[in-house]
Design a protein that fits this description.
The structure holds 2 protein chains of 2 kinds. Chain A is an alpha+beta fold. Chain A has 20 helices and 30 strands. Chain A has a 7-stranded mixed sheet with strand order 3-5-1-12-9-10-11. In chain A, strands 7-15-14-13-8 form a 5-stranded mixed sheet, with helices on both faces. Chain B has helices at 25-32, 84-95, 105-118, 124-131, 142-152, and strands at 4-10, 13-19, 51-54, 57-60, 73-75. The radius of gyration of chain B is 16 Å and the shape is globular. The chains are: A alpha+beta, B alpha+beta. At the A-B interface, helix 2 and helix 18 of A face helix 2, helix 3, helix 4 and helix 5 of B.
Chain lengths: 781, 157
Amino acid sequence: MSEQASKLLDSLKVKAERGELLYIGENIVRVDSMEKVLGSPVYTGDLLPKGTVYAKLFHASVPHGIIKRMDLGMARSRPGVLGVLTSKDIPGLNESAAVLQDRQLFADPVVRSTGDILGAVIAETSPAAADAAGKIEVDYDRLPAIFDPLEALGPDAVRIHEKGNIARQMKIRKGNVEKGFADSEFILEKTYRTQFQDAAPLEPEVGLAIPEDGGVRIIGSMQSPHHTQAAVAKVLRLPPEKVRVIQAVTGGAFGPKSDETPYDVCSTAALAAVKFRRPVYCPMDREDSMIMHTKRHPFVISHKTGVSKDGMLLADESKIVGDTGAYASLGVFVIVRATFHTVGAYEVPNVKADSNLVYTNNTYTGSLRGFGGPQAVFAFESQMEELARELGMDPLEFRLKNMLVPGKKNATSAVMDASCGLSQCVEKVVTSSNYREKAARYRNQMGNVRRGLGIALLMHGNSLGPEGNDYGAVHIEVLSDGSVSVGSGLTEYGTGAISGIMQVASSVLGVPLSRFRLERPDTSKHRESGPTVASRVVVIGGNASKLAAEKLRSRIVPIAAGLLRVDPKDVAIADGVAFDQRNPSKTVQWETVVAEAYRRGVSLREDGFFMAPPAPWDQEVGQGTPYVQYTWGALIVEVEVDLGTGSYRVVGAHAAYDVGKAVNPGGVLGQIYGGTVQGLGYAMMEELLHKDGAVVNPNLGDYYVPTSMDIPDEFKAFIVEVPGPLGPFGAKIIAEPPIVLPGPAVRNAVLDATGVSVDDLPVTPEKVLMGMKLGPRARSR
Amino acid sequence: MAKRVITLNVNGTEHPVQVDATDRLIDLLRDQLNLKSVKEGCSTGDCGVCAVLVDGKLVNSCLMLAGQCDGRRVTTLEGLVDDPTMKRMQGSFIANNAAQCGFCTPAMLMASWDLARHSAEPSNEEIKVAISGILCRCTGYYQIIDSVREGCKRGEK
């Protein structure tokens, strides 16, 4: 035992000397990994009680119109059907809207997109419900529809909502762009476009409602259970406590599961559960999900950028238009984040940006990993590439000259401090990719197959920033057997972030993560913690977890000291053993200390609450410090293009991200790999297509997402650690950022190889080939 | 619709079951036999998270009719929990952080186990091909590929 203790002390001392923390920075086994590799029944669809009936949502068939007649008779008479729910069956408010009150749960009488849900068939089996839903006939008075956001901005455009077609505006006024342009040696104006992307989490949105105690218990796949509770309670006109929402293990989310879709499926299931007194399961199948849930906004972004003779950025004016489809959803915040990132990771002394989030009759858009970042950064990193080439400068050198480093100011005039690790990220990827040598070599390529290099740099504002108060609560309870139970209104949906906040508590308490248990987020047990979005769990929840664990530790250490008969300041706890730091042979087991606390009636339950400091900014000019810290990153990709067909593959990817402190490095790498590949999908192949407002490819056969055959053969990922001021132990966010850079990096690499500028994502072989046929720069949309 | 009784061997046990002509294998496995490791992600054979082995061949159980399995042998993850190769593969998935949301994990494990039976040292390309029918939206595949490579290595017997 004394040997064990002295080893512990040694390892603690080594860590202390290195400035390291117990367990932090170690590759940990996630608390939820065992249930996943066993295929345990933990997802919503695995948990249906006996007697569960099915709800099948049905949606509009026109993009804009007024419902004249809905014939439900045929559907109601089909075998196995319990009934059909429409707006008339809603006892409370017919609303399912995340921010603005612009969206109904069941559209009535106005339909604004083909994704509008009109109601649901409730039947004994899933096939019976689907069969009956196909028998519903709806007649509409058609209204003129708009599918192009620029057209929707026109003065004579049809009004999609009473208040007009602009859901949100945003602007930046930094310096004086007119003067900046006057001083410029060279000015470039270009327009870039991005597409609809579907998050396609492998588990679509699903909700289960069970009648209970004069209300309902809901189990569902979602990011924000408390918001779902509030939404369902409104629809059912029930007090919130009669709507208990439990987040089941969630099979991927990426944003849409923080928007209205979980409200839609859970409200529908709850309505039916109350009406028919049966457990009701409302699953979206893949097609439902791709039609009815929120996607990534298509953007149209124009940049006018001025540079000096020696390649310094002097001014940038951007016009940003985001297509929010029929409803605003979280788009009101997406457009703000996009605007703050309009000149990305560069210092531009004069910036003017004007943004409009615009309604159209396309299906609606909302949260998706990156939240406006991928669109804004695609546009500006493409612009940077074009500028470098016009100036005859190497694209890397041009970026190095202008990128943000400590002391420089970003678009909001926030001054970068020592926590800006961008240059370290760039150095890593430049070295790893052998950029300079390769760039020189590739200049003189001949033949039909050519290589190209593309770079993109990242600044990503951390946390909610302008989206509201950024807080989180974490509850920790040490049980009498010494195990530790952790609960929060913040949720896990794949990233491992909740294991990360438990790792923080584990570090503070000195108890290994194997003794920790995660409580399922439950509105009847856990405190509301804001939405689980913006990759904020480790940073905000981690701080809350740290606070709770520190309070517990302050009660546990004196008990351990009593048992060890030493001064509390000499007590250390590591790996579940408390010991005297001056005499490590004196030890007492964690379980003994906990049992003593229980014997004395000392409470070992604690809540930690953390709120991020304010991030003030001036709405009139878009200036201030809307983010408390930033994540930094750099990506270089190498492509090989067949000039005969325009087809290409990404042969290498070199990515570095400054995450402040990697709490779980294996988890951080998982986010870098996963986000980059999802971003490569966005760059190369993913595009949800609409024709006259109807989704053309709502399935994973016609909407391509990357398979294992599509990933780069070589992928080098680097973790850079320049501590930030906000997160626990200096941690910065990482789940979202890696999806941002592949779009522009791939586009720039293809340009490097072929001379073809593809200005609208995705960069498909057809566009590359067309560009080569028409000659560089001649291709138009 | 007339029900028909078929008998199939699922995870080593003979099951006489009643099926309709239109019942899918996935529903038989999940709903009648309570084998919830089999997931449904698209219902059109595109995502592969419903993959199981039928007579030793990896198939999408959403595209196969239950009636087609009369007299055949079906294996799901639940049937391999005591198999040493599967245990090694599961351990490797855990150690390499290969399960994020976990929804594709059972199918990935089935495909990896199938590969491991045939090859102790598969190449990267072989691993990619083996799992190419299953989509993962979280990991970007790299940590899964690492896991499969490690999991395929046969230890000393």
